[in-house]
Every structure is written in structure tokens, then in C-alpha cells.
Specification:
With 184 residues, the chain is α+β, with helices and mostly antiparallel strands. It has two domains: 8-95, Elongation Factor Tu (Ef-tu), domain 3, CATH 2.40.30.100; 106-158, no CATH class. The chain contains six helices and six strands. It has helices spanning 34-37, 75-80, 106-113, 116-124, 127-138, 143-158; strands spanning 8-13, 27-31, 46-52, 55-63, 69-74, 88-95. It has a six-stranded antiparallel sheet. β4 (55-63) and β5 form a beta hairpin.
Length: 184
């Protein structure tokens, strides 16, 4: 990544998620300070490119529910950056100029395949709008709620609705999104 005026450079601690959040040792995470997050274009999910300890990566920052963001650091990225959980790393990031296309979950893909009107609207909306629909669906805690949301999404899209209403992209008000809990 070439450093630009819009780059954000911080030092942050890598945390291992609590045992209930992940396989032991499979990934770590860091949380951005609020002042750094405030420089990003969105309080919601934001795609960035950057470096950790000089090693380049591309990722999507997730909202932490407290008006900031967190970054999932895969084992591969952590090892390439020469860091371990508990280490302080140097993070330099900049928002992507163009949002990448989100990965469509299999259940939603199947539902859209059998709903031509919904699929037509899905293809016509922005990648950010598609990402919001996906986030709303996958944030369901129970399988039956998720299935209901997939069904409702197809119905709303087929009816011409392009954005999911009342979805808090930052997680601040609904607390539907948050950073993982750190292991002790």
C-alpha cells in the first residue's frame, strides 16, 4: 500500500477471541481507536487495504457497536506480519475506492435463484446495498430467524425494495454487531 493523505496509521494490540468465538489459535483481532474509525467513510462495514507490520492485505472492517471498527486477522496474515496474540502491531489502512462484491451465502443464493423478480432487483442494487441485506440475514441468531429473513428479503426485493429498512449499519443502536470478546 502506498501511503496517502487518507491513510490511517495506528498501533493496536492483537487479541485472541474467547474460546466460544473461534477455534483456538485460528485467528486474532484488533480494535481501532474511535479517532481512527472516525476518519473512515462509514460507521458500518468498510472495505480497506493496508499493511500490518508492513505486510499488505485487503479486508472488511466490521463495526464494533461502539462507533468504532474491528479487524479479523487470519492466522496466515498474522504469521506473515510476524505477530502473535498480545503483540502491538503497526496498522496502516485506507478505505477502498470501490467496494468489493460481497459473498452471497448459500441459502440466500438458492432463494434468489428461485425468485426471478427478487434476483432482478438484487442484480440492480449496489454492492453496499447487497452487503447490508446479507449482514441483516447473517446477523440472525437462530436458524429459524435467518430462514425467515431470507424469505422476507426475497419478498421485499421482489416488491422493489432496494435497501433493508431500519438496519443499523453501525451496530451502535441495535447492538446487532460487535467485536468479539477477547480471551483472558
Amino acid at each position: 500500500m502506498t501511503r496517502t493523505a487518507s491513510s490511517i496509521r495506528i498501533k493496536a494490540k492483537l487479541y485472541r477471541p474467547a474460546a466460544s468465538s473461534a477455534k483456538a489459535g485460528s485467528w486474532t483481532f484488533l480494535t481501532l481507536p474511535k479517532a481512527a474509525s472516525a476518519k473512515l467513510p462509514s460507521r458500518g462495514m468498510t472495505s480497506v487495504e493496508g499493511t500490518i507490520n508492513g505486510h499488505a492485505f485487503r479486508a472488511t472492517l466490521e463495526p464494533d457497536g461502539n462507533r468504532s471498527h474491528w479487524l479479523k486477522v487470519s492466522r496466515k496474515l498474522r504469521e506473515a506480519a510476524g505477530a502473535e496474540a498480545g503483540d502491538i502491531v503497526t496498522l496502516e489502512i485506507a478505505a477502498n475506492r470501490k467496494e468489493p462484491e460481497p459473498r452471497i451465502p448459500a441459502d440466500l443464493r438458492r432463494a434468489l435463484a428461485s425468485a426471478p423478480k427478487a434476483r432482478a432487483v438484487w442484480k440492480d442494487i449496489t454492492s453496499i446495498a447487497r452487503r447490508d441485506w446479507i449482514q441483516w440475514i447473517v446477523s440472525a441468531k437462530r436458524p429459524e430467524t435467518r430462514a425467515h429473513r431470507v424469505e422476507n428479503a426475497c419478498s421485499m426485493l421482489a416488491g422493489g425494495k432496494r435497501r433493508i429498512c431500519c438496519f443499523d449499519r453501525s451496530g451502535h443502536y441495535s447492538k446487532g454487531m460487535s467485536a468479539p470478546e477477547a480471551a483472558t
